[in-house]
Amino acid sequence: MKPDNPNRVPIDVYLSFVSSLSGNRMTLLAGVIVHVATCLAVAAKTQFFVYIPLAAAFLLVFCVRMVIFRQFDCVDKESLSRAGIERWERILVAGAACTTALLGIASGYAIFVVHDSFAELACIAVTMATMVSVVGRNYGSRLAVDLQTFSCCLPMIVCSLLALDFYRGLLSIFLIPFWLTTRAMANGVREFLYENVIARREITIIADRFDTALNNMPHGLVMVDAENRIQVVNRKACELLKIGAPERLKDRDLGAVLRYGARYSFMDASQPELILRQLTQVAEGNLSRTLIHFPEGLSLEFSASRRADGGAVLIFEDVSSRVKAEQKIMHMVRFDALTGLPNREYFGQLVQEYLGKHQRKSGPLGFMVLDIDEFKHVNDMRGHVTGDHLLCAIAARIKQASGNAILGRLMGDQFILFFPHAKEPASLDIEIRRVHAAIQGHYEVDELTFLVSLSAGYAILESTAFAMDEWSVKADLALFESKSRFRGGISGFEREMDGRYIEQQKLKADLRDAVSAQALHLVFQPMFRADGSRIECAEALARWVHPEKGSIPPDVFIRLAEDMGIISDITRFVLFKACSECMNWPDHIAVSVNLSARDLRDADILAVVADALAHSGLDAARLHLEVTESCLIDEPAAVRAILAELRARGITIAIDDFGTGFSSLSYLDTLPLDIVKIDRSFVRNIVEDTRRLKLLRGTVHLARELGLKIVIEGVETEEQLALLNKHRSADLVQGYVFSQPVPSQNIPLLQQGIGRRVVQRRRNKVA
Fold first, then answer.
1. Within a domain: 498
2. What is the largest CA-CA distance in the chain?
């Protein structure tokens, strides 16, 4: 790296080299004193008074150089351009060259004119000494070195040669190597200093970059030596550990610094030793990293590595946000978002942890499942927001009443409780029933009052016999038993329930086989005109005769089919069979088929209905499809779209069991309906209860105002039929007053019988 050309040298380095030409001014003062004294001594010794003007010239040049130096000092160095620096270099070099030129002239004059050994020795010695000082003072400028050595040596060489003395001439020739050596030395010093300046500059830049990176990295870093003394620490480490400024911690013992931080900051007294211990384990490879939690919600993750000299590098970062996010995710995974109670999986984990801690403890344990009765009606009537608030209120009361029991939310409106060891089963039974009784009653939610009952099933067992899945099933069986008896009841598990459960599972398997083999059969309950003069439609009803148990009630096997998810298979069977049978009836008689909620969850039912009509050849106008209000709860918009498409194809749509829901009236105006089938509960006491008759008439009037046809279900007596006809409350009547459900082949026979009675009645009138 040779700075032979100023244009190659960075401008700041070039300026520092030029500035060196005006430095060491005391040596200049000493030099001018020596120069003047030498000239005066030579003049006094040799009586050559030409040396007196030379002495004056030395003084004059010195004074001029001092003035130039002062001017250079006053210049704003940062504003100097490269050209300005070059100009000042030339000015400073010119002053130095004047001094060396005077020395060369004084020496040459002594050699060529004076011929005095003292004069020659004094002048040449002072000149050579000055030449040596050129290396130390003017290394910064190649021009200064070249010009000063040339102006100094040239007069001596010329005068030695003009003296026509062989030895003097030979000696003068030796000045050339001296000149070159001096020049090379100065250049070497300049190059060496240039390389060091550049290297130091690069080191400074690297150090600044490292310091910037070190103090702006998101991680804390502490580097310690083999004695555990801090060598490097960044600002982030000091901020995270709150241990003061980095510059104050150099060469301090890390343990002492941490203990000081524990004393005067947020750390616990035990944490410094924990950090050091974990640091040792991580550095030795026993741990890959470690997480330490501090007060104020701070979590730091540490990692460390050993250095070859026995020291270590400790790196740590603030992972508080990550830890909080993980805790939040873990909470979301473990707890129900609405009630804040443990979910089923975490509830099981809590129970297993309890059993693991109390393995040696004996005594009965309790397991209870709670189910809120008719909770879906709250959502239907008051909306899901109010329903959610009610669920939270119920969960809070259960938590308050359950004491030290472990509580969880199963799903929807079900809760589960685990009761820890008790002294005896009787006391645990009393405690479980107390909790159940405490959570029943009124709840104030959203300025509304709800009377809430919860059905419960529980099992009491010895801790040695506990198995989560098995006893959960037993509690479910007890809950099923409780709900089948009366709402809001509680039942404990009994061994007979296992038998009933096994029997139910077998019945499910048999039903699946029966559906697969199409072993069900249909009966049809006709719908008559109110005067009994004609059958307009017949409702298809599925029946199942079990090979061992005989006839299974429809409400039993239909509920099982819904639980098993095979109700759509039954619907398909009924649709195809009913459409085919209807083709054997008189043309004016239609067939009606019930659709379940599962059937209407997707658009597959459209294809099923189309296939049934195409397979049988039945006109779409002769097919009626009945839906209940429960079909409309989950996805009313999707159900409405499916029904509209079916109606657009010419199929008649009826709403079944109207009046048993909580918001049926709202569906009359929004759904694509043709027929309203009023539930039998409206008819049961209309003869005795005038209020119920008024309610029925009002519902009928509303439906007719909307252009809907009325079918009254469950008409069983002549008195009920006469009352309905008196008030013209029905378009069609379905019930035992006219006919029970009959096989398909009986429908034409019934119609024929009606025809004969009508003809006979007309003949009687004529007669």
1. no
2. 189
Alpha helices in 617-717 (DSSP H): 636-648, 664-668, 690-705
Q: Give the model confidence (pLDDT) of 205-261 as tens digits.
A: 776 776 666 666 777 778 888 777 887 877 777 777 777 677 677 777 777 777 665
Amino acid of residue 337:
A
Residues 602 and 729 occupy one common structural domain: yes
Q: Using the 3D structure, point to which of 157, 176, 201 is the last residue of a domain.
A: 201
Report phi then psi at 70, rounded to 5.
-65, -40
> Of 281, 301, 325, which one is at a domain's C-terminal end?
325
Q: Indicate the average pLDDT of the chain.
A: 80
pTM for this model (two decimals): 0.50
Which amino acid would we find at residue 638? A
Q: Tell me, what CATH number does 267's domain have? A: 3.30.450.20
Token duo for residue 571: 């619907």
Note the pLDDT of residue 1. Answer: 42
Distance CA 493, CA 367 (A): 10
> DSSP letter string over 381-400?
HH-HHHHHHHHHHHHHHHHH
CA-to-CA distance for 694 and 713, rounded, in angstroms? 17
pLDDT band, residue 285 (cuts 50/70/90): low
Range of the domain at 25: 11-201
- Cα(441)–Cα(491) distance, integer angstroms: 19
Question: Exposure pattern of 364-378 as b/e (b: 16+ CB <10 Å)?
Answer: bbbbbbbbbbebeeb
Residues in the chain: 767
Residue 271 shares a structural domain with residue 366: no
CA distance 630 to 644: 18
Same domain, 655 and 726: yes
Domain membership flag for residue 208: no
Look up the CATH number of the domain holding residue 376.
3.30.70.270
Q: For 78-142, what is the HEC assignment?
A: HHCCHHHHHHHHHHHHHHHHHHHHHHHHHHHHHHHHHCCHHHHHHHHHHHHHHHHHHHHHCCCCH
Render pLDDT for 445-494 as a digit per residue (tens, 0 to 9).
888 888 888 898 888 887 666 667 777 778 888 887 787 777 788 888 87
CA distance linking residue 104 with residue 419, whole number of Å: 115
* Domain count along the chain: 4
**In the block, which residue shows the tokens 């030695």?**
160
282 and 361 together in one domain: no
> Does residue 503 sit within a domain?
no
Is 642 part of any domain?
A: yes
439, 550: one domain: no
> For residues 292-326, b (16+ Cβ closer than 10 Å) or e, as one string?
eebeeebbbbbbbeeeeeebbbbbbbbebeebeee
CB 176 within 8 A of CB 157: yes
Distance CA 282, CA 271 (A): 16
- Asked whether the predicted pLDDT for residue 755 surpasses 70, the reply is no
Cα angle vertex 480, ends 475, 486, to 5°?
125
Q: How far is CA 537 from CA 160, 527, 565, 647, in A?
A: 148, 5, 29, 17
User: 51: part of which helix (H) or strand (E)?
Assistant: helix 51-73
341 and 320 inside one domain:
no
